[in-house]
């Protein structure tokens, strides 16, 4: 039996016992006693309901407080994780930027190292063409020998160049300077052959008139006056108005 039931039973017994012992109550008094008893019972039931309701509310509030505390802890953990992720993202961004800069520097350095190995555009004697770095280096080295008056070494360098780079854009110019190097070392017959090959393939070359004048000079050195006169006459006719043609006229007039 619950506490409330025991209380109600006690109240009922306490209310009815005096009347039962006396046996002297009428209907009106009985109804009044019953109503009083019912009122007390209702009050007790209401009090019990309120107590139970308050207990339920307290329990619910306790659950809510625990849930709120858990949510607060989770929120704090999320904040900490978000801060960590932001820091990691910022670090990744810095690392990525550093990597990009290093890569750009490496590419720039690579391009700088690669550039000397790439073909270079050259403009020479009225035409443009591309040459390999080694091709350009050997040509300039041979020209350096010629400028220093080292004619034999220059001739060898030009001949080696033509063998190695047989289709070079430098080819025509190299043949012209080879003839001059041979002339400089007094290899006149070789120079004549070189100049003739040059003129045969390059009659319109910017240095053709100079080559024909040099050929005539070689013939003069060999005392072949007849051939020299013909070369000078051909020069004056083919390339009038050039400095070489003017020099040819003067040289032609000096020949007997």
Q: For the largest sheet, list the strands in their spatial order.
A: 1-2
Helicity range: over 70%
H-E string: HHEEHHHHHHH
Structural class: mainly alpha
Which architecture of the largest domain per CATH? Answer: Alpha Horseshoe
Report the sheet with the most strands, covering strand number, pairing sense and barrel closure.
Answer: 2 strands, antiparallel
Low-confidence stretches: 19-25
**CATH class designation of the largest domain:** Mainly Alpha
Whole-number average pLDDT? 84
| Radius of gyration (Å) | 61 Å
Q: Helix segment count? A: 9
Question: What is the first-to-last residue Cα distance?
Answer: 162 Å
Strand fraction: under 5%
> CATH superfamily of the largest domain, please?
Tetratricopeptide repeat domain
Number of strands: 2
Domain YbgF trimerisation: 66-121
Subcellular location: Periplasm
Function: Mediates coordination of peptidoglycan synthesis and outer membrane constriction during cell division.
Keywords: Cell cycle, Cell division, Coiled coil, Periplasm, Signal
Care to describe what's here?
By secondary structure, the protein is mainly α. It folds into 2 domains: 3-111; 120-254, Serine Threonine Protein Phosphatase 5, Tetratricopeptide repeat, CATH 1.25.40. Helix content is 80%, strand content 4%. A hairpin with a 2-residue loop joins strand 1 and strand 2 (127-131). The radius of gyration is 61 Å and the shape is rod-shaped. Residues 19-25 have low confidence and may be disordered.
């Amino acid at each position: 039996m619950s506490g409330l039931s025991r209380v109600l039973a006690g109240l009922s017994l306490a209310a009815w016992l005096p009347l039962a012992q006396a046996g002297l109550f009428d209907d009106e008094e009985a109804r009044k006693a019953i109503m009083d008893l019912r009122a007390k019972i209702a009050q007790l039931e209401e009090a019990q309901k309120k107590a139970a309701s308050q207990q339920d509310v307290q329990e619910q509030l306790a659950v809510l407080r625990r849930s709120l505390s858990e949510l607060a802890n989770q929120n704090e953990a999320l904040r900490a994780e978000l801060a960590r992720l932001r820091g990691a993202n910022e670090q990744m961004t810095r690392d990525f930027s550093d990597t990009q800069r290093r890569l750009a520097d490496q590419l720039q350095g690579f391009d700088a190292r690669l550039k000397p190995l790439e073909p270079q555009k050259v403009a020479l004697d009225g035409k443009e063409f591309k040459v390999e770095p080694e091709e350009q280096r050997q040509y300039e080295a041979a020209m350096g020998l010629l400028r220093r008056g080292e004619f034999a070494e220059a001739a060898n360098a030009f001949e080696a160049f033509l063998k190695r780079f047989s289709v070079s854009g430098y080819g025509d110019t190299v043949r012209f300077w080879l003839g001059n190097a041979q002339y400089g070392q007094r290899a006149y017959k070789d120079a004549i052959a070189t100049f003739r090959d040059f003129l045969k393939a390059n009659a319109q070359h910017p240095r053709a008139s100079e080559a024909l004048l040099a050929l005539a000079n070689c013939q003069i050195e060999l005392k072949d006056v007849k051939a020299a006169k013909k070369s000078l006459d051909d020069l004056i006719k083919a390339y009038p108005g050039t400095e070489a043609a003017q020099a040819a006229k003067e040289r032609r007039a000096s020949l007997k």
